[in-house]
Amino acid sequence: MAELIEDAEQISLQELGESLLEATGGDPAALHALTPPDLLEHPRVRTLWEGRPERAGWELLATRLAFEAALELGLRARVGRTLELTGTVAAAVEPPDPQVLAELVGESHRHLAGQGVLDTDMPGYGAYLRGLLERLRLRGAILHPWLEPYLAEDGNQWRIWGGRREGMPAFPLGQSRPRFPHDRYRGHRDAFDSLAATGATPTWLVDWAVRTIGVEPGMAPSLNRRMFELLDAEEVVRARPTRRGGSAYGLDPRVIAVHDVPEDGMAPSLLCCDVCRSPHAAPPEQFAAWVGTPCLRYRCPGRYQPALPEPSNYYRRLYRSRTRRRVVTAEHTGLLNRREREQLEAAFKAGTDPAAPNVVVCTPTLELGIDIGDLSAVLLTSVPRGPAAYVQRVGRAGRLTGNAFIGAFLPAGPRALYYLAQPEHMLAGEVRPPSCYLDAVEILRRQYLAYLIDLAADGAVPAPPMPPKIGLVSGAGRAPGTWLGEVVAASVVPDAPHVGEFLALFGTHLRDETAAALREFATVGLAAAVDRALAGWKARYDDLGRRRDRLKASIERLEQRPDPDDPDQRELRRLRGERYAVIVLLRELREESTLQALEGLGLLPNYTLIDDAATLEAVLWSHTEDGGFSGLRLVYQRPAAIALTEFAPGNSFYANQRRLVIDGLEIGTASEPLYQWWRLCPECAFGAPEASHRTWTACPRCRHAGIADSGARHQLLELRRVFSSDSDERTRVFDETDERERRHYQVLTTVDVDPGAVERAWQHRRVTFGMEYARVATIRSVNFGPAGRHGEQVWVAGAQLEPPRFRTCRLCGAVTGAREPGRTDHRGWCLTRSGRNEDWDHPVPYHQVETEAVRLLMPVATFEVDERLASFKAALLLGLRLDFGGEPQHLAVVVTDYPGSGGPGRRRFLVLHDTVPGGTGYLGRIADPERLRVLLDRARETIARCPCRSEGRAACHRCLLGGIDPSEIELVSRPLALELLDQLLGEWAFDPVPTIADADIGLVEESELERR
Ligand SMILES: [Zn+2]
Ligand SMILES: [Zn+2]
Ligand SMILES: [Zn+2]
Ligand SMILES: [Zn+2]
Q1: Which ligand gives the minimal distance to the CA of 834?
Q2: Dihedral, CA atoms, 77, 79, 82, 84, nearest 10 degrees?
Q3: pLDDT tens digits for range 387-439
Q4: Whose CA, among 75, 121, 841, 851, lies 20 to 30 Å from 962?
């Protein structure tokens, strides 16, 4: 728009509207850039840049652009960084002969007032006329074909909202809408300014006449009406009869002139009221006439003065820069399916399609090997994990020219603030390569089945062809002669050579234990794993079938109501939407390709390494124009450990520009519920399903009797699948606040080690310190409910909790209060909908992984516990990083404790565990006093000579802070870590013991008492 005006110097609003589209010369990119966002998907408009332009699309867009021009220079000219307020252009209503008009007004005034003479202090008829016309323009009283029905129907809101013309922007309630003067209308409708109103409070029009020409207030309405008749006669405004009688007046866009404001260093078009400071823009030619004119604000006593020039005017430069490229954004995340992701990458990379995204918002998927071509800028919204991740992300930019713009927005937090002060530690930090691990048994198992399936495909294992869909595989099962039956049989038969051949592929790189575990799996575990997976698939399929039937029954009940009232109709639509989604789901489940389904069932390898995923299933319904419905089903997966909070009921999950509120849990079926009553020991990390022991008198691990109390009972639900059901419209986040809502939960993570699973254990000779390696440790995280809410007090693993838990419908899994406090949105197939009484459970979702762990008993009891544990943990992580030669991303450290044998303290442990189920074998290799010494020695050396010791800091990211959780940064201190390391490494000598769980910590408590 700014360009056209600059080239023309002066142009009428009418011509401007007409030429906006012509000026593109039909260039697809320019057409796309000009199109308002709500028309980008319009079937006819989008033909303009998709290579087969339709006349109807062109006309619709042209009409819309004229409308937009009128808004920009009318109703919305004073809101935000508009063309006028940035001093780029200035518009004014310019009647053909303003002098004559002003004289005619004067004549009418004298006629009405008898022989009355104009007060010489008054600005006069010219100002009256100018202000009145500007008022019309700025209130949006500009005629446009789309506004004709609105005028004709006395400002019927429907005509500019729900019932507006195709292609017109909506003016919902609360948004200012065009306002026209009307010669009779006396009411207070938003659409009209009455010319006839004679209330105690003068209207703007009356006030204006009084302020500019000093007319008697009682006489002003007559003068104003006369004025509009004159303007109508001069074709400046046009009268439009309205249904209830009388006429509305609108400006003819031909008399609105838009002037270019030449760049003179000053802001020659901008004025400012000397009382209320409200701005006004006037074309340079009329600027002088506006200085001293009364302010257009209702009853403001101020007058306009030239505005002070702005030192720099970014927007004015931007509007005149003649670069018009629409910012088209897209999300690139692991949540996209493969087809969507590839389409996005190709479109972004090519960049030729005008609708192609040119700004991509990425999660760390950008670090993976995706190909999106060369970037000119990368903006980070957080601090990457380390220099390697940083280089990987920013290295995407500037590959073509060597130049790139890199920016980072840092959230306020200790870690980000550290790098803000020391950016070179990130920019020029040490880049460690990633590592890989072969001893991960769970992954090998999946690889092995894949290997067998390959052999079958080659004919090396005799089997019929693989059925293409999982529904067929499930139907056939593992019977002899079936594909899966033969594949499994080839491994299970005695002396089958395949497992040996498979292991031979790894040469000598596998540990003996790993090879043995895989051999056992090949002969015993495989068949069981396949059966379990198929049974799980079938149970889910059957359950969905039952839900479909129940939905059908609910729908029929509602349909039979003779005179259904409105809420029932909405309910009916919702149920139909839900049934549709369930039917689609059943079909998808049945027709999923065999290999993909087996991957999802945890039998074949996938790219995340860890198959342990939780699923969010969203069903969104929407109403169609004809009163029908449609349903949309979306599915997202997250690693189960993260899903414990991200997918917790009441939380919001953001994806594909939607906000999905988790409002239900998959609770299984009545016959096979997914949750169970458990006993969690109040004192230690032990926990087990209640049914696993006949009676509960004492904890099998710590012998504490508290486990027998009712407070130790909890309903545990393994978090596998959660739901969100909502209307499509409500989930779209465009208009909402930018803040993403994240809820917080009371999550407790514990590590339970069965002494029977401890393979090796050692105790330090002098210091209370020990280490042990457990082949299997149970890392269990339980989400006890939203933070900030309180239930009855209980103790779990030595921690005091007041868990609110999740109140959940026993019949459908809907959770109370997920969306609104106290409300439960039962699912469409819930039996409460057919009259069953509500029935509640209070489960707590959990996630558990059984994997390798190294447990270290720490010489810490009650004094500076958090600081010393965090400092040692940081040193251990540093040692691991140095030892591993890369980021050990598959390892995690948790602090845990265990009841003491007598004194006030508890035994404190640091547990280093794998996050891959079954473990990767790495910990088995380092669980040895000599290896641990080397590791801690290297860490000590780095800490002792880290430059941060002379920089007045407790620690830095080159040493202790490298791998630690941001919440622990404040706790970590180099002196504390050094003290602990020196204490241990001074005389590094160990004796083997069965376990360190029962070590005496009396000495630690004594020495801590002395320290105080
Ligand atoms: Zn003012
Ligand atoms: Zn216990
Ligand atoms: Zn329910
Ligand atoms: Zn340091």
Answers
A1: 3
A2: 50
A3: 777 887 887 777 777 788 888 888 776 667 777 877 887 787 766 655 566 77
A4: 851
Sequence-ordered strand ranges (E) for 333-480: 359-362, 377-380, 405-408
- Non-local CB neighbours of 897 within 8 Å, separated by 6+ positions: 798, 906, 907, 908, 909
E strand or H helix at 204: helix 204-213
The ligand minimizing its distance to the Cα of 696 is 2
Ligand nearest to the CA of 303: 1
User: What sign does the CA torsion over 523, 529, 535, 541 have?
Assistant: negative
Half-sphere exposure of 295 (CA within 13 A, CB side): 17
Amino acid at residue number 274: D
Does residue 443 have a pLDDT over 50?
yes
Q: 873 C-alpha vs ligand 4 centroid, how far in Å?
A: 15
Distance 187 CA to ligand 1 centre (A): 27
Cα of 553 from ligand 3 centre, angstroms: 16
The two tokens of residue 478 are 């593992």
Residue in 621, 656, 622 with CA at minimum distance from that of residue 636: 656
Alpha-helical runs (H) found in 592-653: 594-600, 640-646
For residue 953, the CA-to-ligand 4 centroid distance in Å is 8
Residue 389 CA to ligand 4 centre (angstroms): 20
349-353, 461-465, 660-664: lowest mean pLDDT where?
349-353
Q: Which ligand is nearest to the CA of 703?
A: 2
Average pLDDT over residues 753-768: 90
Position 516: which residue type? A
List phi, psi (to 5°) of 964: -90, 160
| Among the bound ligands, the one closest to the CA of 297 | 1
Which own/partner contact pairs does 787-796 have at CB distance under 8 Å and 24+ positions apart?
787/743, 787/744, 787/745, 787/746, 788/744, 792/711, 794/682, 794/711, 794/712, 795/682, 795/683, 795/706, 795/711, 796/680, 796/681, 796/682, 796/714, 796/748, 796/750
Cβ burial 223-253 (10 Å sphere, 16+ → b, else e): bbbbbbbbbeebebbebbebeeebbbbbbbb
Dump pLDDT digits (tens) for 517-564. Answer: 899 999 889 999 999 889 889 988 988 888 888 888 888 887 877 665
List CB-based neighbours of ion ligand 1 within 5 Å.
273, 275-276, 295, 297, 300, 302
Q: How far apart are alpha carbons 268 and 266 in whole angstroms?
A: 6
3-state secondary structure 683-714: CCCCEEEHHHCCCCCCCCCCCCHHHHCHHHEE
**Which distant-in-sequence residues (6+ apart) come within 8 Å of 646 by Cβ?**
638, 653
Residue 499's pLDDT band (boundaries 50, 70, 90)?
Answer: very high
Question: Quick one: the chain helix, strand, coil %, rounded to 5?
Answer: 40, 20, 40
- Which ligand has the nearest atom to the CA of 211? 1
pTM of the model: 0.65
Beta strands 377-380 and 329-332: pairing type? unpaired
In angstroms, rounded to a whole number, what is the distance separating the alpha carbons of residues 699 and 686?
Answer: 8
Position 121 pLDDT exceeds 80:
no
> Residue 951 CA: which ligand is closest?
4
Find tokens 């002396």 and name the residue: 495
The number of the ligand nearest the C-alpha atom of 837 reads 3
Residue type, 284: P
The bound ligand whose nearest atom lies closest to the alpha carbon of 955 is 4
DSSP string of 237-276, one letter each residue: EEEEE-TTSSEEEEE-GGGEEEEE----SS-TTEEEETTT
Pair type for strands 794-796 and 770-786 = unpaired
Pairing of strands 799-801, 770-786: unpaired
Stretch (H or E) spanning 664 = strand 664-665
Give the amino acid at 401. Answer: T
By the 10 Å C-beta count (0-12 exposed, 13-18 middle, 19+ buried), 399 is classed as exposed
The packing angle between helices 441-458 and 483-492, to 10°, is 120
| C-alpha 1004 – ligand 4 centre gap (Å) | 28
Residue 78: DSSP 8-state:
T
